[in-house]
Amino acid sequence: MEVVLVVDGSFSIGATTFNNNVKAVLRNFATILFYLGKDVSVGLVLYSHVIDKVIDLTDDVTRYRTGVDGLPYPAGGTYTDLGIKSAAEMFRRLGKAGVTKIMIVITDGQSANPQRTSQEAAAARRSNITIFAAGVGHTPTSELQAMATSPQHVLTADNYDEMSTLLAGLTKNCAVDGGWTEWRRLGYGPCSSTCGPGTQLTYEIRYCSNPTPRDGGASCINSNTRIFSEQCTKQVPCPSSGLCDDVKMVNGVGFRLHPRDCDKFIQCYSRPDGYTLGVVRTCSYGRYWNQEEVMCDEACRVDCPIERCKNDCISTYKMDGSCRGYWSCDEEKSEPQCCPMGFAYVSKRGCLLDFTCRDQCPMICTGEEVCNSRPVWTDAHRYEQSSDRPGWVENACMKSSLYFDIVACQCSTAPTTECRPRMTMDFSNPNQLTTDPVVVVSRSNLEVTGKVAVFSGNSKITTDISIRSPGYPISIRLNYREAAAVNSRQVLVAAPWCKRASSVSMVIFVDKNVIGFEVKNWYGMKEHMTIPTDGFSLDEWKDVLFAYDGKYLTGTVQSGKNKHASRVYAPKITMVECGLDFGSDGTTSTFNGQMDLVSFSLVLLKHSLSFVDLECPTVIYHSQFIGFQCVAEFKTVFILYFRMNEKKQTEDNRAQFGKGEQIKGHSSVSDFN
What we know:
By secondary structure, this protein is mainly beta.
């Protein structure tokens, strides 16, 4: 049903009556009409000596009532013929075929041209429009009958309140068809999968009460229940695929694309006893990993399935390995770019002035992108190297003081493998987090129970540890596990800014399937490294180590028999100058989980990156300057700080050197020749 109200707005009505009484009639009657069912549309034409306002046919009661509230009071003449003609045109323009059309003319007096009014009404009736003529006050009955479809379609009232009652009575005997309510869910069937995506049956019901059928109206058709299949509402996350589970094997070494970055790849090494090491490696400047060819290639030639320029609403993004390097998006492809010297790229902001950013860009290639060597698992000083021919060729490091570092893919100086750190927290004593009398430790909202520190999302441990320039070597090690699946950044360790221009902040954080390391200065991001944790179980402890030697930052994370590692170039950064905090960096990115070991050392610690277990004599030595005790576990013992008693000494003699004395001012073995 379609109803158009034709409303007189002549000056004889008066502003008060129009705004209070007339508008009330229009609102109340339309509300009743809309209640009749969903197939009701209402429109309005306000006239005086011209058409003053039109509300087109609508089934939206809110839109109609808002239009009525905004009607102006015309205070003009009574040209009823104009209103009837305009309403008839609305039916022709917006009306639906086969739908009952009703026009209700509401006026308070005789029209300015009764003959023309009668003619327009007759034309509307010939278009199958039923006309009710409603007169208020002293409207001539003869003119009302000339407009109306029949004498039974004439309504007269002394005032608008009485007219409102008469109009409401028109709907009493109208048949109201039933209408369905919205579907309401009754319940769900079991999920087809125990973890990850799955489907389930959903049961829904609806009722024929919107409106309820009455006065002979038709009842609702079709069923009031339905059953359909949809994705499970509560999905239990499956353990993510391990980083080295789906790889392409080449000569006994696995290769795969990095799960989140096109310019990185993973090399996977398996130890005979079932342990696996996945090493994150980065292609050189402007190159992507090509999994089909098992090589780094020009980015424009590689169709990377995780291309960020296709999936993200971004135009540029940061390139790891250089403060000046970034990627620019062009036709859904990434192109390598460099900021000018003295400018650093800052995510979402572009190239910004940074006098500390002096990196070479484009970066100079310093070696092979793919590591063609692997450890000899029974000897830390030997390694195997592949060539164009099938198989491996065994080699030894050139010096007995060197061991093979699979992350660096080269022979390196052996680090300390076990050390009494500058500070350790094993949480064995809830009342005293560390036994170091020099370090001041405070905590907030932290629970310590069963040798485990429980971080509840607003917990924090604060220490006053600080080291001065050059600030390396250092190692930070901790064991943690999450309380729930991590979907956003949570801070494990933070070194805050100092109030100095050269100061930097450092953060170690865990995020969805990654653990990361960030260093920022006053200009913005300086260094960034993430290590995937794909395949690690939520309830298992993760052993994390970040070691920095003043040139390279190396990180490892291990869970069960799987270890992942990465390394980035990060020259000469002093990053722990004003304390070291755990569980929070002062933002909302706080840790929710547990830690059972935290240590901070002023030496390099390697967490058995080559997975070589060696037996050797234990040698203990002391450093008066730093105050720690170290235990070397390699066959050859390496002293980090000592004074040579002889200018020339063979490598074998150095290996047998049992005790040393700290030389103040020296902080690296590279200071000794």
